[in-house]
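This section describes the prediction task in plain terms. A model, or a person checking by hand, is given the sequence of a single protein chain and must write out its three-dimensional structure as a string of tokens. No templates, partner chains or ligands are provided. The sample shown here is typical of the held-out split.
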Amino acid sequence: MVGRGIDRSQHGEGKDSVRDGKQFNHEQLRGAKFHGCALAQAEFDNVDLSQSKFNGVNLLDSSFTDINFQGAKLTNINLANVTIDDANIAGLTIFGWNIAELITDAQKRKTSK
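The expected answer:
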């Protein structure tokens, strides 16, 4: 893929540009490829991101609620202050991050509510 954005070509939808604060609600993004995107403060709500790939993406202060991350791959991403609630993370790979630590932190937040 050339440029920055989301490649949805396997779904026949072409390529979308993305920006900080973007909202993704009830979308089917299975297999989508996010490359070099600025997605700080993005909101993902009830989105299928299974088999998706995030590479070089800034997700600072973003939130993921009711998400399918099954088999997704995240590489070279900024996860600072990201919240993930109600997610299927079976097979999720986050290169360079301790997933067990992220899960523990999420469980602490959930029990403190």
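For orientation: The CA atoms of residues 71 and 91 lie 4 Å apart.
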